Amino acid sequence: MNVRVFATEQEAAAACAAHVAEGIRAKPSLVLGLPTGRTPLNVYRELVALYQRGALDFSGVTTFNLDEFLGVPPDDPGSFRAYMERHLFQHVNLAPEHIHFLDGSAERAERECARYDARLAAAGGLDLLLLGIGPNGHVAFNEPGESLQAASHRARLTRETRQAVASFFGDDVSRVPLAALTMGMGAVLQARRVILLAFGANKAAAVTAMVRGPITTLCPASLLQLHRDVEVWVDMAAGRGLETSL
Ligand code: PGA
User: Fold this and answer.
1) Which burial class, exposed, middle or buried, applies to 49 when counting CB atoms under 10 A from its CB (0-12, 13-18, 19+)?
2) For the chain, which terminus, N or C, has the lower number of CB atoms within 10 Å?
3) 11: CA distance to ligand 1 center in Å?
4) 38 Cβ closer than 6 Å to some ligand 1 atom
């Protein structure tokens, strides 16, 4: 893992957006894996700014988002799909048919996950995957537990995760769905390149466990130690636990 500690979150986000832009210029048909949450907001802001300056063309790019809440339709304002529309999709020239999402409101979750995985396989897998990390070490909604799953699947959300995403549901944790559909660890580990971003003191323990701890399903992000091309880009607060050995 290549760890880089940035002075500020904004610097890391700008570097990440620049890296994505470089990737798209090098390969206009880039297949990009995208997270939601608070972490990537500045990256999306930077990407929109690059597009508006005419420095970036998304017309050949394909995207796969990591996860979606179970039972939440794409047009629900609390959905991750709505988040992506607000923060990126509405503002750039991505072709709608190149945007891929797990549909949380699909009648049969298993079939929906299989459809999504087949689409990802048909696209040739992810060239570049942007990831966040949960305070509990989850990536996408692959939550800590005795085992992890390779394929996309229905995941039960931990109490901690439901609390962390309550802001999507008016800060009312009782409104947060109990489960989600998520990309599995297979697609994460098969991505050709991964950039994991983590900002703020509440991520420090998870970042330390991911980078320095044992590889364990109790910290799903630790499996990224097995990946050959992972960048971990953090701000000083999230990188605090790594200081001594850097
Ligand atoms: P956050 O979520 O960006 O909102 O902190 C990250 C994650 O849970 O993966």
Assistant:
1) middle
2) C
3) 18
4) yes
Helix axis angle, 41-52 relative to 9-26, nearest 10°? 50
Element (H, E) at 193: strand 193-198
Query: Which pair of structure tokens corresponds to residue 94?
Result: 């991505």
Closest CA relative to residue 35, chosen from 67, 72, 69: 67
Q: Which amino acid is at 141?
A: F
Q: Is 86 in the pocket of ligand 1 (CB under 6 A)?
A: no
Percentage of the chain exceeding pLDDT 90 = 96
pLDDT 10s digits, 35-64: 999 999 999 999 999 999 999 999 999 999
CATH class of residue range 2-235: alpha beta
Per-residue pLDDT tens digits for 57-100: 999 999 999 999 999 999 999 999 999 999 999 999 999 999 99
Amino acid at 187: A
Alpha carbon distance 114, 194 (integer Å) = 23
Side chain identity, residue 43: V
CA of 54 to the centre of ligand 1 (A): 30
List beta partners, residue 131: 196
Whether 201 is in the pocket of ligand 1, judged by its Cβ within 6 Å, is no
Look at the block and give the residue holding tokens 């394929």. Answer: 151
The model carries a pTM of: 0.96
User: What is the distance, to the nearest Å, from the Cα of residue 111 to the centroid of all Cα atoms in its chain?
Assistant: 22
The letter for the amino acid at 97 is: E
- Tell me how far apart the alpha carbons of residues 158 and 172 are, in angstroms, rounded to a whole number: 15
